[in-house]
């Protein structure tokens, strides 16, 4: 089903006209209300009024995650705090997450778009939605929740964790749709099996999976184990949250970007040049309707490509290919964004620890496992095993506290962390997606 | 009254201990006493050697992380209750033994134990007050 027939199936010419009109008004507004954007536009010698076509957008400078950090916490908000009704944040370097805000209208827009996404996956009024995305500062839980309510479905705000209770709820409440990270879903499937619960007896028909990289193989695995149709969802808090793009269950081939609200570009990450449809590069988004936190040409660092071909589902919005990588060193571990530099700053704050570390990511029983190897130098060393074990524990606690992700800390001998051309190999990702 | 002990950080990997003994053997360093404490991931090797400076130098040069700590070598009567008496008097005075291990020698009536205390000064004082024989570093290195 299509939630918003008018906008989701709008002819391209009409859609482009709406995009241009919304783009121009967004540019005028950020220029008037956000000093950061005004300075950026002035420095580039471009006035919002000079943007007369979607191609002209290329004259406007990019916005990066660093810009968001530099304006922490509310520096890029385009409305007074009086009008901000919600704040979310994603993990950032120590003490400095990326903060985003929403007006009441933004929350409503977001709910509409998530309702569209759930409908594209096959959900409708009358469905029961098992929402296992985490609730909190992370946008996943509340984003899916509001969308489910907007759609008129019944939502179970089960959030993450307490897996055996989740299995009981799936068995007793009979949810028909699941929203979760793909890795947690597979974990859930295993626990269900251990508890003797068969997915044959459950009522699931579709699942909306995202917030971390996954693959076609994982999709097949999930569909076979849970007996449902699995679709990919895309979003990031900087742009809005989940519901920026969604795969339709009819085609399951690329994610429709909700283009009446977001303008998507693919650029060459090296040169910043815009790339044509069908070419692989970095995804860049400009919000077209957001009030509290508009973003202009935000570089996502996600690698994808855009496909303008008409889709069997009837939606006219371009499809982005499943995100296939990153243009930076960010890792997504159990849905949490982790930069190696964040781990480094946690280690640097502990004086006895030397910055010789390595992150190893594995997938064990479908869950991401992060191991942090730390070389033992003289400051850290003790002849007492218990002191060394306490150090391991303390490092793990500090990582958990700062990044919100659990890590196994492993002390290793000096110079044992692989160095290539003298530079330490910081990340080993063993996950086979 | 103190004995200098060298400790080495070792990962639990095949051949790591042999690596240490090989380096020391090549340098002509004799290991007088040795104990290994380990977890599933790593271990700490503690040693008393005849030439501690040389041992430290060659191990460091080979990339090992080394620590040096003062321990106490105590003569323990080779009879039932010999060790217990010492532990008991220390315990009653509130001195904690972090770890201990035995010192092997060819002959002699009494055993020698190496102790690592949380409060070494207090431990030495108590042992002396109770006329327990503490063996000096110089003696231990050359025994």
Which terms would index this structure?
heterodimer; A: 433 residues; alpha/beta; nine-stranded mixed sheet; four-stranded antiparallel sheet; 11 helices; 32% helix; 26% strand; B: 143 residues; alpha+beta; seven-stranded antiparallel sheet
Explained architecture:
The complex is a heterodimer of chains A (433) and B (143). Chain A is an alpha/beta fold. Chain A contains 11 helices and 23 strands. Chain A has helices at 5-8, 12-33, 35-44, 65-70, 104-121, 139-151, 163-173, 182-194, 216-226, 340-349, 385-403, and strands at 84-93, 96-103, 128-131, 154-156, 177-180, 206-209, 229-236, 241-247, 255-257, 262-267, 281-287, 298-304, 306-307, 319-320, 325-326, 331-333, 336-338, 357-364, 367-375, 407-412, 419-420, 423-424, 427-429. In chain A, the strands form 6 sheets. Chain A has a 9-stranded mixed sheet with strand order 4-3-5-6-7-8-9-14-13. Chain A has a 4-stranded antiparallel sheet with strand order 10-11-12-15. A 4-stranded mixed sheet of chain A has the order 20-19-18-23. In chain A, helix 5 crosses helix 6 (139-151) and helix 10 crosses helix 11 (385-403). The longest helix of chain A is centred in the first third of the chain and has 22 residues, at 12-33. Chain A is globular, with a radius of gyration of 22 Å. The model of chain A has no long low-confidence stretch (mean pLDDT 93). Chain B has 143 residues and is an alpha+beta fold. In chain B, 34% of the residues lie in helices and 36% in strands. Chain B contains 5 helices and 7 strands; from the N terminus they run E-H-E-E-H-E-H-E-E-H-E-H. In chain B, strands 1, 2, 3, 4, 5, 6 and 7 form a 7-stranded antiparallel sheet that branches. In chain B, a hairpin with a 3-residue loop joins strand 2 (31-38) and strand 3. The longest helix of chain B is centred in the first third of the chain and has 11 residues, at 16-26. The radius of gyration of chain B is 16 Å and the shape is globular. The chains are: A alpha/beta (433), B alpha+beta (143). The A-B interface holds A 376-378, 381-385, 388-389, 410-416 and B 5, 7, 9-11, 16, 37-39, 41-44, 46, 63-67, 69, 98-99, 116.
């Amino acid at each position: 089903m299509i939630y918003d027939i008018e906008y989701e199936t709008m002819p391209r010419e009409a859609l482009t006209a709406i995009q241009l009109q919304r783009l121009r008004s967004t540019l005028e507004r950020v220029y008037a209300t956000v000093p950061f954007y005004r300075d950026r536009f002035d420095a580039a010698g471009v006035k919002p009024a000079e943007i007369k076509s979607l191609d002209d957008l290329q004259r406007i400078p990019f916005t990066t995650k660093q810009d968001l950090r530099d304006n922490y916490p509310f520096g890029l908000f385009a409305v007074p705090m009086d009008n901000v009704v919600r704040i979310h944040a994603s993990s950032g370097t120590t003490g400095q997450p990326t903060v985003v805000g929403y007006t009441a209208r933004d929350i409503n827009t977001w709910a509409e778009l998530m309702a569209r996404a759930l409908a594209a996956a096959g959900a409708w009024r009358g469905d029961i939605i098992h929402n296992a995305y985490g609730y909190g500062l992370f946008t996943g839980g509340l984003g899916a929740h509001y969308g489910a309510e907007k759609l008129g479905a019944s939502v179970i705000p089960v959030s993450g964790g307490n897996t055996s209770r989740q299995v009981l709820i799936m068995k007793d409440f009979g949810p028909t749709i699941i929203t979760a990270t793909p890795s947690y879903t597979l974990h859930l499937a295993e626990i269900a099996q251990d508890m003797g619960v068969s997915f044959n007896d459950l009522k699931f028909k579709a699942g909306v999976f995202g917030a971390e990289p996954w693959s076609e193989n994982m999709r097949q695995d999930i569909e076979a184990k849970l007996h449902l149709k699995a679709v990919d969802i895309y979003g990031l808090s900087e742009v809005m949250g989940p519901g920026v793009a969604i795969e339709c269950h009819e085609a399951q081939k690329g994610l429709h970007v909700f283009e009446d609200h977001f303008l998507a570009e693919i650029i060459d990450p090296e040169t910043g040049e815009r790339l044509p449809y069908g070419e692989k590069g970095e995804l860049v988004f400009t919000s077209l309707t957001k009030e509290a936190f508009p973003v202009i040409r935000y570089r996502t660092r996600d690698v994808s490509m855009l496909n303008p071909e008409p889709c069997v589902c009837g939606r006219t919005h371009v499809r982005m290919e499943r995100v296939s990588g990153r243009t930076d060193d960010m890792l997504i571990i159990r849905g949490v964004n982790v930069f190696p530099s964040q781990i480094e700053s946690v280690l640097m704050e502990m004086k006895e620890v030397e910055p010789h570390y390595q992150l190893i990511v594995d997938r064990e029983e479908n869950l991401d496992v992060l191991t942090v190897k730390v070389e033992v130098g003289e400051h850290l060393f003790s002849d007492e095993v218990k002191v060394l074990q306490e150090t391991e524990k303390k490092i793990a606690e500090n990582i958990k506290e700062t990044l919100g992700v659990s890590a196994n800390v492993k002390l290793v001998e000096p110079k044992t962390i692989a160095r290539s051309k003298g530079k330490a190999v910081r990340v080993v990702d063993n996950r086979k997606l | 009254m103190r004995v200098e002990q060298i400790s080495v950080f070792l990962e639990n990997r095949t051949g790591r201990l042999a690596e240490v003994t090989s380096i020391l053997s090549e340098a002509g360093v004799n290991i007088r006493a040795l104990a290994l404490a380990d977890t599933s991931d790593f271990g700490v090797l503690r040693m008393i050697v005849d030439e501690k400076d040389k041992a430290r130098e060659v191990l460091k040069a080979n990339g090992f992380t080394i620590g040096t700590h003062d321990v106490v070598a105590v003569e323990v009567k080779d009879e039932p209750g010999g060790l217990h008496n010492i532990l008991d008097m220390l315990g009653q005075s509130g001195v904690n033994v972090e770890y201990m291990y035995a010192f092997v020698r060819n002959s002699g009536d009494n055993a020698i134990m190496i102790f690592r205390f949380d409060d070494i000064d207090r431990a030495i004082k108590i042992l002396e007050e109770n006329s327990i024989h503490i063996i000096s570093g110089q003696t231990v290195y050359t025994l």
